[in-house]
Design brief:
By secondary structure, the protein is α/β, with parallel strands linked by helices. It has helices at 2-27, 56-67, 88-93, 109-119, 138-143, 172-188, 216-225, 247-267, 280-306, 310-331, 333-336, 339-363, and strands at residues 46-52, 75-82, 99-103, 124-128, 133-134, 151-160, 198-202, 230-241.
Length: 373
């Protein structure tokens, strides 16, 4: 039991602490590709593709935001209304700066993106969601890297705000942690996946989605990775979003995303082959091991409870305190105000979402149907 306990602990510590340190140390020897925008005289044409379902509430603000973006080349905006019933089509039809694709029947985001790509003519495709606003210079920040043939996709950064003041954006501890890892992976070679709210590829690299695809922002960059190309993370390209006030909605979103990970892994088994996947180590450490941590935590708890070693018994009681703090944070608003208790709560929520996502995937309860979050 002692061996099982230590192996479980080492696995968790490696995944959340050792790997980030290792990828940071390795990435220090490398730098992001440098592109002198002053030397780009002919910027490629861009198509912004947005899939929307009942987004009339957000689209006016979104389109006004896109009209203010600073990009020296030509830009077209393609918006696919996927079975909208709330006035989305009327709003889009009234604008002459939008190419409207009206799908009468809602088929889901992957099919909507496929429909939008059939209308898009730009050399570079920038995928966005309808809800977020975009920093003014984001298109240039993304597109400049496509002057490099080894780059297949470029991901922007999602920043959580209070919904009003962008300068007061608070991305939180988890987002800072993720940003740090993605930036290191990007310098070292490539990230695995992109930020769904803002990422770009060459139109020639687009692979049409299966109708049941859950994670387009993983499937699309992975398709370019399969060709040996990099996915870069560019923090200067920013999408601002507002966090959900409903904890249940946020949990469902996370659970659906993690269910999509299982789907994509099954569709792309080549990712587990180190001879074919140039980011095999990063992929396992960042994407796969995260999904296995909750099971290692359970093993650590039960193996420590059954161990004869007094030191490990002490770790068992420490784990009980850890979980008790999370329960207290879930049940008491006052306790939840404590930063440490709230961190434990969020950490356990994320790990439970990984288990719940697996159940959703195995039972077929994850779908591409539109849901508000």
């Amino acid at each position: 039991m002692s061996t099982l306990f230590w192996l479980s602990v080492i696995f968790c510590v490696y995944t959340y602490a050792v790997y980030p340190v290792l990828i940071y140390l390795l990435s220090r020897r490398r730098a992001m590709p440098q592109v002198d925008t002053a030397q780009i005289t002919d910027w490629p044409s861009v198509s912004i593709v947005i899939a929307a379902h009942n987004e009339a509430e957000n689209l006016q603000r979104k389109l006004d935001n896109l009209a203010a973006l600073d990009y020296p080349g030509s830009v077209e905006t393609v918006v696919v209304s996927d079975g909208s019933t709330d006035g989305t089509v009327a709003l889009l039809a009234a604008r002459d700066d939008v190419l409207l694709v009206d799908c009468a029947q809602a088929r889901g985001k992957p099919s909507a993106l496929n429909a939008g790509m059939q209308r898009a003519t730009g050399e570079i495709i920038v995928f966005m969601d309808a809800r977020q606003t975009i920093e003014q210079g984001s298109l240039q920040a993304l597109v400049k890297y496509f002057s490099l043939p080894e780059v297949g996709a470029v991901s922007g950064e999602l920043v959580m705000t209070d919904g009003e003041n962008h300068e007061a954006a608070n991305i939180g501890l988890y987002w800072r942690y993720e940003k740090f890892i993605r930036a290191c992976e990007s310098r070292y070679f490539s990230t695995a996946g992109a930020t769904g709210a803002l990422y770009a590829i060459r139109r020639t690299d687009f692979v049409p989605h299966r109708p049941e695809t859950l994670l387009d922002d993983f499937e699309t960059p992975v398709a370019t990775l399969r060709k040996g190309k990099r996915t870069l993370f560019e923090p200067a390209a920013v999408a601002y979003d507002r966090p959900s006030d409903n904890v249940a909605d946020e949990f469902r979103r996370k659970s659906r995303t993690l269910a999509g990970n299982y789907q994509s892994f099954m569709w792309n088994l080549w990712l587990f082959n180190p001879r074919r996947n140039r980011i095999w180590w990063q992929f396992l450490s960042h994407k796969v091991f995260r999904l296995l941590v909750p099971y290692a935590m359970v093993l650590a708890l039960f193996s420590s409870a059954l161990a004869d070693n007094q030191l490990i018994k002490g770790f068992f009681f420490a784990q009980l305190l850890f979980y008790a703090a999370a329960v207290a944070a879930f049940t008491s608003e006052r306790v939840a105000q404590n930063k440490l208790a709230n961190f434990i709560k969020v950490f356990l929520q994320m790990n439970y979402a990984a288990v719940h996502g697996l159940v959703r995937y195995l039972t077929g309860k994850s779908s591409v149907r539109w849901k508000k979050t």
